[in-house]
C-alpha cells in the first residue's frame, strides 16, 4: 500500500514539474497520508485529551446525578404486596385399595399448579374483586407535583349512574367550596359537566346521575385540596387487574403459589391480594366439583363415538394385511432409501476425487512453467491435496513439493546452467512423469468404482418401483387406526382417573404468608437510579474523551512528533506571546535572552552537530501548508546564526506568496524571480537587515512559472555566487503540501527542515513528510516543533520555565490575543473545553 502511495505522490510531483497537471493540493496530500496505517494508542495524547475533557466529565456526572434526582422526584413509586399459598391434595383413594395405582397413574400432577394459576387470573376472581373492593371508582388528590390515589381514605364517596359511555375513564374534577357544598367540572368527550351542589344532594347531569357524600376522613384540610375521580368501565378494571396481578408457581415440589399485586398505593395492593386469597379459596372447591362432573359426562359421550371408529379402522386394516401379505412397508422403504443415499454419497466422493486428479494432472503438466516463473509450489496451488486417498500419489506429490522448495532455494544461488540446477530439473522431470502415470492408473480405478456403484443403484431402483403404492395404502389405513386406539385408550384412562378423584380426593387450601402493606417501593430503586445516572454520565464522559481522542489529528508535543517520524527533531520553539504580530518578523535581536531566542540557539547548536564538517551550508525551510510558521522560523533562525558570527543570506523562494520582505519590513520590487530571468544581478537584489551578518533576497514579482525557474541553470549559478560571499544560505520554500517547488529545493539542501506547528499541523502532514523522505531519499531531513506551549512541549527536552501566554503569530500566520496577562476564569474554562 505504501509503495503505491509513494508512486502516486511522485507521479503528481513529476507532472507538476513538467507542467502536465496542477500541483498536488493539501487535500490530495492529506488524503493520501490518511490512508497509511495508524501508529497505535498514544498514551501522552490520550492523557492530554483526558485532561482537557475533565471538566466535561464532571459536568456529565453532575448531569447524570441531576437526571436521576429529577426522575425520582417526578416518578410515582410502585409498591408490591405478596402472599404465599400452599395447595395440598389429600387423597383418600387408598380406602378402596387404589392409592398406589392413583399415585402412579395421575397424569395431571405436574400441571395442576398451572391450572390453579389460570383459575386465579380468571374472570371468576376478577368479578368478585370488582364487586367487593369497589374498583370502578378511583379517587385522587392533586399534590405539588404528582397526584395521589386516596384508596380507602377518600374524604368523599360518590354514588353514580353513567348514562353517557363517553364519561367512562374520564377525569372529573371536584373541589369543596364549603363544608356542605362542592363544585364539579369536566370538559372532554361527551357532554360538559359544571356546577355547584350540596353534599348528599342527588344531582342529575348530562350523561351522569351523581350523589356525593362525605366520609369520616372529611376535615378542614379537605376544603383547600383539589380532587378528581374517574369512573371506569368493566374492561378497564379487568385490564388493570390483568396488568398488575402476578401469579407464579413458587415451588412445584411444595405445591406453593405466590400471588402479588403492584400499585402506586401500597394499601390498595395489600387489600387486593388478600381479597384474591379469600375469593380463590371459595372458588377452588366449586370449580373442582363442576369440572369433574362435566368432564365425566363428556368422557362417556366420546367413548361411545370412538369405540365405533376404532372397530371400523381395525376391520379395514385387517383386510389390507390379508390381501397384500405385508406388515411393515415403511421399514423396507426406509432401508432402501438409506442404502441409496449411501451409494450416492460414495459416488459424489469418487467424482470429487476424479476432479481433483484432473486438476493435479493439469497442474503437473504446467509445472515447468510454474517452477520457473512463479514462487508457488504445487501444494500451494492445490490446497485439497490432503484429501487424496492414494498413498503412492500422495508420496510422489510430497516429493515433488520438496523438490520445488529445493529448486527455489538453489535457484537463488545458482543460474539455470549450473550442474546443481540441471540435476534438480532432471529429478523433477522423472517425478512428474511418475505422477502422471500414477494419476492415469488412479483415474481408471475411480471410473471402475463409479460404474460398480451405478449397477448397484439400478438394482435398488428396480426394488423401489413397487413399494410406494403399498406404503401409501398401509399408511392411509394405519393413521385412523392409531388415532382411534390412542383416543379410546386416553378417554378410558381419563374416566378412571376422574372417577377415582371424585370418590377419593378432597381439596385443602392454606395461606402460608398473608399479604402485608409494603413500606419500600420496588420501583424506582433510588440507589439503582442514582447508579445508572452516574454511570450514564461517566459513560458519556468517557465516550466524549474517546471521541475527542479519535478526532485529535494534530501534533501537540515533541513526544508525538518523535513517535510519528524518523526525521531528527532539532528543537522546539515556544509560543511567542509578548506582543501581537500581524506578520512574521525578526524578534531574536530585540529579545536575545527570551525563551524563544534560547530555543532557536539550541536549534542552531543541533544544526552545527549535523553539518559540522561543512563550512558552507544550504538550509531549506518548508512546511505542509501555509500557517505553520515557516517564515517566522526562517528569519529568526537566520538571525541567531548570524549573531554567532557567520554570514547568512535568506532567500525567499515562496514566489507565489512572499513574506520574507514583510518580516524585515522591506519592499519586494526585485528579488529571486528577477535574478532567475537575468533582469537583475544577485548584488542588486541583496537587502540588508538590522543584523550586520544577515542579509536577504526577497522573492520578487510573482512569475507565471516558479517551478521552471527553480529548475533552470541560472538558479544553480545564483547559489554558487552566494556561496562565495556567505557561510549559510537559508531558503524559505513554498509549502510542499500545496506546490512542488519546495521539494526541488529540499533535494539540493544540505539540511532540509520541516516545520510542524503544535495544535495546528495535522498528523497526516507528518505522514506526508515521511513519504517525502522515502520518495526523495532525504536522509538528512530535520523537523522543528513550532508554537509549542511552554508547559507541555517546550518543557520537554529543554527545561525552560518561561510562562508565556497562548498567543500566536503568523500570516503573520497566527492570531494572537495580545500581550501576556494573567488568564481569566473564562480563559481557563476555555482551555479545559478545548
Biggest beta-sheet profile? 8 strands, mixed
The amount of beta strand, in percent, is 15-25%
Corresponding CATH architecture of one domain = 3-Layer(aba) Sandwich
**Would you report the number of β strands?**
21
CATH topology of one domain: Rossmann fold
The number of helices is 28
Radius of gyration: 49 Å
Uncertain residue ranges: 1-37, 91-105, 369-374, 791-822
The SS-based structural class is alpha/beta
What is the 3D shape? flat
Supply the CATH class of one domain: Alpha Beta
Averaged pLDDT, please? 78
Q: What is the helix content? A: 40-55%
Query: In what order do the strands lie side by side in the largest sheet?
Result: 14-21-20-15-19-16-18-17
Measured distance between first and last alpha carbons: 35 Å
Name the CATH superfamily classification of one domain.
P-loop containing nucleotide triphosphate hydrolases
Short description:
This is non-specific protein-tyrosine kinase. Belongs to the etk/wzc family. This protein has 834 residues and is an alpha/beta fold.
Question: What's the SSE blueprint?
Answer:
Layout: H1 2-18, H2 26-34, H3 43-52, H4 54-73, E1 79-91, H5 99-105, H6 112-120, H7 123-133, E2 137-142, E3 147-149, E4 156-162, E5 172-178, E6 181-186, E7 193-198, E8 202-205, E9 208-214, E10 227-231, H8 234-244, E11 245-251, E12 256-263, H9 266-324, H10 329-365, H11 367-373, H12 378-381, H13 391-411, H14 419-464, H15 467-504, E13 505-513, H16 526-551, H17 558-564, E14 568-574, H18 595-610, E15 617-622, H19 630-643, E16 648-652, H20 660-663, H21 672-676, H22 682-685, E17 687-688, E18 694-697, H23 706-711, H24 713-725, E19 728-732, H25 741-748, E20 751-757, H26 763-776, E21 782-788, H27 790-798, H28 825-833
Parallel strand pairs: 14-21, 15-19, 15-20, 16-18, 16-19, 20-21
Antiparallel strand pairs: 1-12, 1-13, 2-3, 2-10, 4-9, 5-6, 5-10, 6-7, 8-9, 11-12, 17-18
Amino acid at each position: 500500500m505504501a509503495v503505491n502511495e509513494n508512486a502516486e505522490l511522485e507521479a503528481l510531483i513529476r507532472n507538476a514539474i513538467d507542467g502536465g497537471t496542477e500541483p498536488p493540493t493539501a487535500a490530495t496530500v492529506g488524503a493520501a497520508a490518511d490512508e497509511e496505517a495508524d501508529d497505535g494508542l498514544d498514551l501522552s495524547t490520550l492523557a492530554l485529551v483526558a485532561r482537557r475533557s475533565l471538566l466535561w466529565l464532571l459536568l456529565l456526572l453532575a448531569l447524570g446525578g441531576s437526571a436521576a434526582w429529577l426522575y425520582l422526584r417526578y416518578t410515582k413509586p410502585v409498591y408490591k404486596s405478596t402472599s404465599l399459598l400452599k395447595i395440598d391434595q389429600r387423597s383418600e383413594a387408598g380406602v378402596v385399595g387404589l392409592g398406589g395405582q392413583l399415585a402412579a397413574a395421575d397424569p395431571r400432577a405436574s400441571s395442576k399448579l398451572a391450572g390453579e394459576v389460570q383459575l386465579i387470573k380468571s374472570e371468576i376472581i376478577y368479578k368478585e374483586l370488582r364487586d367487593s373492593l369497589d374498583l370502578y371508582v378511583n379517587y385522587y388528590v392533586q399534590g405539588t407535583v404528582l397526584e395521589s390515589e386516596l384508596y380507602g381514605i377518600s374524604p368523599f364517596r360518590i354514588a353514580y349512574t353513567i348514562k353517557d359511555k363517553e364519561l367512562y375513564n374520564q377525569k372529573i374534577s371536584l373541589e369543596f367550596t364549603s363544608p356542605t357544598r362542592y363544585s364539579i367540572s369536566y370538559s372532554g368527550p361527551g357532554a360538559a359537566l359544571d356546577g355547584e351542589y350540596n353534599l348528599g344532594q342527588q344531582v342529575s347531569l348530562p350523561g351522569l346521575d351523581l350523589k356525593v357524600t362525605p366520609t369520616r376522613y372529611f376535615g378542614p384540610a379537605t376544603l383547600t385540596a383539589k380532587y378528581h375521580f374517574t369512573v371506569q368501565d368493566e374492561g378497564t378494571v379487568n385490564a388493570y387487574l390483568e396488568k398488575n396481578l402476578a401469579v407464579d408457581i413458587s415451588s412445584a415440589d411444595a405445591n406453593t403459589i405466590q400471588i402479588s399485586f403492584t400499585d402506586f398505593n401500597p394499601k390498595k395492593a395489600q387489600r387486593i391480594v388478600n381479597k384474591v386469597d379469600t375469593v380463590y379459596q371459595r372458588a377452588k372447591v366449586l370449580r373442582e366439583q363442576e369440572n369433574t362432573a362435566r368432564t365425566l359426562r363428556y368422557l362417556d359421550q366420546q367413548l361411545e363415538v370412538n369405540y365405533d371408529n376404532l372397530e371400523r379402522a381395525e376391520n379395514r386394516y385387517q383386510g389390507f394385511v390379508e390381501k397384500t401379505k405385508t406388515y411393515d412397508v415403511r421399514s423396507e422403504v426406509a432401508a432402501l432409501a438409506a442404502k441409496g443415499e449411501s451409494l450416492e454419497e460414495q459416488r459424489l466422493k469418487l467424482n470429487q476425487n476424479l476432479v481433483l486428479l484432473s486438476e493435479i494432472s493439469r497442474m503437473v503438466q504446467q509445472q515447468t512453467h510454474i517452477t520457473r516463473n512463479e514462487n508457488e509450489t504445487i501444494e500451494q496451488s492445490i490446497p485439497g491435496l490432503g484429501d487424496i486417498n492414494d498413498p503412492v500419489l500422495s508420496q510422489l506429490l510430497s516429493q515433488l513439493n520438496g523438490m520445488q522448495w529445493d529448486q527455489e532455494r538453489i535457484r537463488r544461488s545458482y543460474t539455470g546452467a549450473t550442474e546443481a540446477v540441471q540435476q534438480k530439473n532432471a529429478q523433477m522431470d522423472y517425478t512428474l512423469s511418475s505422477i502422471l502415470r500414477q494419476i492415469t492408473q488412479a483415474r481408471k480405478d475411480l471410473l471402475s468404482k463409479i460404474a460398480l456403484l451405478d449397477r448397484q443403484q439400478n438394482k435398488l431402483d428396480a426394488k423401489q418401483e413397487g413399494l410406494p403404492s403399498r406404503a401409501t395404502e398401509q399408511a392411509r389405513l394405519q393413521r385412523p387406526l392409531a388415532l382411534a386406539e390412542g383416543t379410546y385408550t386416553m378417554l378410558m384412562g381419563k374416566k378412571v382417573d376422574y372417577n377415582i378423584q371424585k370418590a377419593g380426593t378432597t381439596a385443602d387450601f392454606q395461606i402460608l404468608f398473608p399479604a402485608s402493606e409494603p413500606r419500600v417501593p420496588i420501583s424506582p430503586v433510588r440507589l439503582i437510579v442514582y447508579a445508572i445516572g452516574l454511570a450514564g454520565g461517566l459513560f458519556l464522559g468517557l465516550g466524549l474523551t474517546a471521541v475527542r481522542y479519535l478526532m485529535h489529528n494534530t501534533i501537540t508535543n515533541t513526544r508525538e512528533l518523535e513517535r510519528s517520524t524518523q526525521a531528527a527533531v532539532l528543537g522546539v520553539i515556544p509560543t511567542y506571546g509578548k506582543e501581537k504580530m500581524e506578520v512574521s518578523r525578526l524578534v531574536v535581536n530585540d529579545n536575545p535572552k527570551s525563551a524563544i531566542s534560547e530555543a532557536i540557539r539550541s536549534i542552531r547548536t543541533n544544526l552545527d552537530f549535523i553539518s559540522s564538517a561543512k563550512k558552507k551550508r544550504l538550509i531549506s525551510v518548508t512546511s505542509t501548508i501555509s500557517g505553520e510558521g515557516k517564515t517566522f522560523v526562517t528569519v529568526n533562525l537566520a538571525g541567531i546564526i548570524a549573531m554567532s558570527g557567520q554570514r547568512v543570506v535568506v532567500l525567499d523562494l515562496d514566489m507565489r506568496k512572499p513574506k520574507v520582505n514583510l518580516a524585515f519590513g522591506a519592499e519586494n520590487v526585485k528579488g529571486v524571480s528577477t535574478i532567475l530571468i537575468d533582469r537583475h544581478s544577485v548584488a542588486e537584489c541583496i537587502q540588508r537587515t538590522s543584523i550586520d551578518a544577515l542579509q536577504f533576497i526577497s522573492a520578487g514579482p510573482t512569475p507565471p512559472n516558479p517551478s521552471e525557474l527553480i529548475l533552470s541553470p541560472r538558479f544553480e549559478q545564483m547559489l554558487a555566487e552566494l556561496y562565495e560571499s556567505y557561510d549559510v544560505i537559508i531558503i524559505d520554500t513554498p509549502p510542499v503540501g500545496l506546490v512542488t517547488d519546495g521539494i526541488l529545493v529540499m533535494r539540493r539542501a544540505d539540511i532540509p527542515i520541516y516545520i510542524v506547528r503544535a495544535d495546528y499541523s495535522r498528523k497526516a502532514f507528518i505522514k506526508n513528510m515521511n513519504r517525502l523522505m522515502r520518495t526523495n531519499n532525504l536522509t538528512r531531513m530535520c523537523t522543528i516543533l513550532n508554537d509549542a506551549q511552554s508547559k507541555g512541549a517546550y518543557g520537554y527536552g529543554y527545561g525552560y520555565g518561561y510562562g508565556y501566554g497562548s498567543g500566536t503569530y503568523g500570516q503573520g500566520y497566527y492570531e494572537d490575543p495580545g500581550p501576556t496577562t494573567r488568564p481569566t476564569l473564562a480563559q481557563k474554562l476555555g482551555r479545559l473545553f478545548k
